[in-house]
Amino acid sequence: MATAYPAPPAPPGPVLIGTLMGSTAGGLPVISTPQGTLVLQAATSLPPGTIVHLAVEADSEEVVRSMLPAIDPLQGRGWPALKDVMALIAASDPALARTLAHAVIPQPNRRLTTNLLFFLTALRGGDAAGWLGGAAMDVLDQSGRRDLFQRLTEDFQSIARQSAEPLADGWRSWAVPFGDPARLERLQFAVRAASEEENEGGRAAGDRSKRFLIDLTLSRFGPVQMEGMVRPARLDLMIRTMERLPGGLGAEIGEMFRSSLEAVGFTGVIAFQTGAHAWVKLRPARRSAANA
Fold this sequence. Notes:
By secondary structure, the chain is α+β, with helices and mostly antiparallel strands. Helix content is 31%, strand content 24%.
């Protein structure tokens, strides 16, 4: 004989309906909802595919607006839409998620430059689908979350528009995903042509010398800025951290830098600075009165 259980009391606030997609490596449930993908901070034995009702303890419109905020191409360290895409793929197809992490996400490993260039190429074309690949798009389609891809495409377009407009001092900047997809953040990459003064007293106007900036946050060392100048067969690099690097790490980095340059036939010097006073800050270009 079946036992009848009383219906649970209705929650006092709005309800978010989602589908249990799977769990993270740590066993936390991943819930797909129309407003985004959530990772609940509580274990569950429910099977994937279970429909869940989540009580929201806030005004529903504010929750919807805050769950996937539009990306700011110049500020912030997060990328909500991309993080949700990767979480959904990890819950649906862990092997595919590992492949994407290795093949497309820039991380501090030997594929950093390759993945960075691949991302920037896709970004210029607004090709989020080509960057993720067909298998990832199939997962989004099968999960009914094509809206996440649309949001990611809008982020690509926003970053591309911003990078097309030079900032103060001629910098052009791109927001770039960075790190382990489970803790996905982003770095800020900027580049500009070197001035005549920086070109050692005024080389030809057509000189290919470039300056670049990379701003990122590392789990052990916090904010880090790398500023470099690239000339034909030469790379000079400045690494800035808020606190002094521990032990002989600076010497180890310097040795790796010099060995890498020798391997490709380059020369150059590396230096280190500590403290925020030397940090280069990217600023929007001043708008003229006619354009204000």
